[in-house]
Amino acid sequence: MSEGLGPEGGHSQPAPTITVQDLSDRPAHTPLERITPAHTLLDGNTPVEQVSGVVEETSPSSTSSFELVDMEPAPPLYQPVQPHWFYCRRVDSKDVWLPFSREDSERLEQALSTAGEEEVVVAVEGERYDVRVRERQRYAVYWEQGPSEVRRCTWFYKGDKDTRYMPYPEEFSTNLEEAYMIAVTLDEWKRKLDFPSGETVILHNPKLIMQYQPISLQDEWVSSPSEQTRPRTVKRGVDNITAEIPDGEPETIDHLVFMVHGIGPACDIRFRSIIQCVNDFRSASLSLLGSHYRRGQEEGRVGRVEFLPVNWHSALHGDATGVDEDIQRITLPSISRLRHFTNDTLLDLFFYNSPTYCQTIVDTVASEVNKLHSLFKHRHPEFTGAVSVVGHSLGSLILFDLLTNQKTGSGEADRDEDTAHLLCVCLCGRNRDPCPLTCDALEQALCKMGLQEHLATLQSVDLDLDSLAMCDETDLTELGIPLGPRKKILSFIRKRHFLQEGRQGTVLLAPGLQALPDPSEDSPSPTVSFGNQSSEASARRQQFLRAQSITSAVDYEYFDVGIGQVSINYPQLAFHPQTFFAFGSPIGMFLTVRGLKRIDPNYTFPTCKNFYNIYHPFDPVAYRIEPMIVSESDLEPMLIPHHKGRKRMHLELKESLTRMSTDLKNNVLGSFRTAWQSLVRMPVAALPPVEDGETTAERSLQETESVHEEVESPGSAEDKGRQVKVGMLNGGRRIDYVLQEAPIESFNEYLFAIQSHLCYWESEDTALLLLKEIYDKLGVAFEQPQQ
Fold this sequence. Notes:
Layout: E1 19-22, H1 31-35, E2 40-41, E3 47-48, H2 67-70, E4 84-91, E5 94-99, H3 102-115, E6 121-124, E7 129-132, E8 137-140, E9 148-153, E10 155-158, E11 166-167, H4 170-186, E12 191-194, E13 200-205, E14 208-212, H5 225-228, E15 232-236, E16 253-260, H6 274-292, H7 294-298, E17 304-310, H8 313-316, H9 323-329, H10 336-353, H11 355-379, E18 386-392, H12 394-404, H13 412-417, H14 419-428, H15 442-448, H16 455-459, H17 465-468, H18 473-478, H19 483-502, E19 513-516, E20 527-530, H20 533-551, E21 580-583, H21 587-593, E22 611-615, H22 626-629, E23 638-639, H23 649-666, H24 671-680, H25 696-712, E24 736-738, H26 753-757, H27 764-776
Parallel strand pairs: 16-17, 16-18, 18-21, 21-22, 22-24, 23-24
Antiparallel strand pairs: 1-12, 2-3, 4-5, 4-9, 6-7, 7-8, 8-9, 10-11, 10-15, 12-13, 13-14, 14-15, 19-20
Helix pairs in contact: 6-27, 11-20, 14-19, 19-20, 23-24
């Protein structure tokens, strides 16, 4: 199809002139020609000339096969087509058009009808995107992503090799709709529409409309004449195509979750970004809420959980710190692809153990989480729910170190009272005085930096704080200030400039959108203007982080709490997380390597009272936490039930055969009855080992009575058969939770090892465990759907 008519047809063109020909066997002077001689409306305003009543012979390939279909009864009265809004997404170097939900489409349609000449911004997809209606562009709100085209769709086409229907450009759809309206109104079919670009559309009847491409637009590799004239099927309205229109999301948000990725830019086996993986996890949670919390939704007690991605990889690599350039200079030229993969992913582990780049990583994660939290509360001022955090792989270790080094304050209201102080925390990485950024005099700032001996030098040239902020390294060198103090002063200047920008209270919206104060005193909410402020702020932030990675000072001391990385200036979060979930986490290994052999059972995070360590049994990166707390007990991890209930069948059979074999060994003479009981009874999730002197038959009744509670309450049940204290890191509850491997994975655990480390984003069992923990605290009952 020519440019402007295909899926990429967003380019503006002059209104095409369409030639309409009658392909029926009626006389030349048809009712259509008597009523509208040589005219057909195109855009609702301009008539199109060159409408001819000449009868043409059609090729057998175009109409003869449709004669039986053409025998239709009297057509129905014309009804205007109902438009539906779509957006374009780039997938595997191809443009794919996806529909908005019906609720979002209706909001966009209503905004278009009331917009007038002014631009209107409509929040869609759970308010994670903003659509500029007149511009027909969709912008991401919470993450960096280029704008995507939006289209108001009414007519669609699909070729023989296409997997889904594609929408026509809006102007082309308008032409088809007007031709269709005349054909229906006058009962005139078998009309041929020739477009100047070469496309031909034939309206055989209301249910059969075909489009033919000119030969010049065909694939040059196609040689068969029959293939060159192969038509495309044309459909009117979204209800006549097989489009999977997503369900709208509930407006009420019950809980907010930030998800931090691990090493590298890709997060799963398909090399997708953290944004795409979190989108899948969010979709799985919405589906599970509809199946496992249906009653709560019907009663209005369950809304949804919002999951937002936190990306720190881009701040460390590329132009953010310059480390990629340094690594590339020393990288060998051989096996370039493998070395590139290593530099882009595995080196993140070494960067985190480097005090310089560890400071950059924790600063980026904390500032990104705080920024997203502030932006979310700005867009959802009615939100009163709690906030949790999720970390995958190395991301879980970053969050663990951050939460270990949080300071307990007097509440969020007191923290929000002084915005400048919070910015100092993010910049200086400490929540304690002294902080030179809050000083108003040069002498005071130099004293807090330990550079008071250089005060006389600076005062000799009449420098104060404001004039010092305009100095560069050359100026300080000319004054005779040594390299060490010079670097401290330059770092102070950059931080102070960054702090002054933050004090302005600017709220960042989508890329290209910036919130500005409303000039009206009656309206406290900001209005939206369009510009490039966010990109400029991002560039300044990258320069700041790059300078920080070079000048950050490190003190190799361990923290008083006994758990944590080497002494880094850890930033403070702007909220107290309710729960910390770790996916495939190496926390246990890193703590052991740091020399920590045991976690005090009474230890808790200063600002977070709940912690879950979730892992796949074949995950090569995951390690347990509970043995570091309860070292004297061989405690099995809690088994996460399948989201459809109970265990997977192959695990039930495996454990049943294992128990039967144990019974046969313990009691050969009287084992048949006991073995049969162990084979047929339902297994218990996270079954503990049998106590000495106790048979499985004696525990059968106890386990049968408890299994219902165990299946319906993943994440809250204690170890059966004995009360085991696993410390206060999760409020006295179990910490380690293991997923059930799939049947195919059990054949070769080595083959699926890498995949098992990346499986959490699409794991419905994992998503259900999070929802169970969240809604248990809200007093909403969990429902196991009947199979």
